[in-house]
Amino acid sequence: MDESKTVAGMPENRCVLSRIGRWPVSPRRGNLQVNFRLLFHPGLGMIAAMATPEFHLLREAPQPVAPFSHAVESDGWILITGQMPTWPENDERALPEGIAAQTRRVMDNLIIVLKGLDLGLEHVLQARVYLTRFKQDYADMNLAYASYFPADRRPARTCIGVTALARQALVEIDMLARRPAPARPLSRREDDRP
Question: What tens-digit pLDDT sequence spans the chain (194 residues)?
């Protein structure tokens, strides 16, 4: 069967092609627009290209302290910008005192960003923690951080000692999350069976 004719008959953004066949997909998941282009490859035929990145700046999250988005999403992967222990409702307010309080404020800010994307901490696969006083604050930061995750579901993590952070913060944390697959499994069409 001519793959290019098969795709041409489908509505735009409705078919992803691979070597094993055509898989219909929904062009929307909740409020997320799935964007991809169909490309012709001489050896593979029609293939789907990477999704167009989406840049998220959320009103309810703390205002960025520099020129960046709260998160960038592509192909279901979400890179969440490092959050500071600032207050969402008042960026001028003094930072919480001590590493435990700052870690909780940072985690709460990350939860705000995730919630704005219809996600939660259960979708986080990896975190990076930046500490300005590594030896002094590592243990107390770990206690506060660990309270946000069940013991059997903690993301992969790297912790890095740094010389300074914006706003004289003691801690900053960024995350990598993954949007869950569609609720129902995709099934191949009858004429695609090998």
Answer: 334 333 444 344 333 333 333 334 434 333 334 445 555 556 666 655 667 889 999 989 998 878 899 999 998 999 999 999 999 999 889 999 999 999 999 999 999 999 999 999 999 999 999 999 999 999 999 999 999 999 999 999 999 999 999 999 999 999 999 999 776 555 555 555 55
3-state secondary structure of 111: helix
pTM of the model: 0.71
The CATH homologous superfamily for domain 54-178 is RutC-like (3.30.1330.40)
Q: In the structure encoding, which two tokens stand for residue 10, read together?
A: 């489908």
Helix/strand/coil percentages in the chain, nearest 5: 25, 30, 45
Coil, strand, or helix at residue 26? Answer: coil
Residues of the chain with CATH 3.30.1330.40: 54-178
Q: What is d(CA 193, CA 148) in angstroms, rounded to the nearest whole number?
A: 45
Q: Within 10 Å of residue 1's Cβ, how many Cβ atoms?
A: 7
Cβ-proximal residues to 165 (8 Å cutoff; 6+ apart), any chain: 84, 130, 132, 171, 172
Q: Report the distance separating Cα 86 and Cα 94, nearest Å.
A: 8
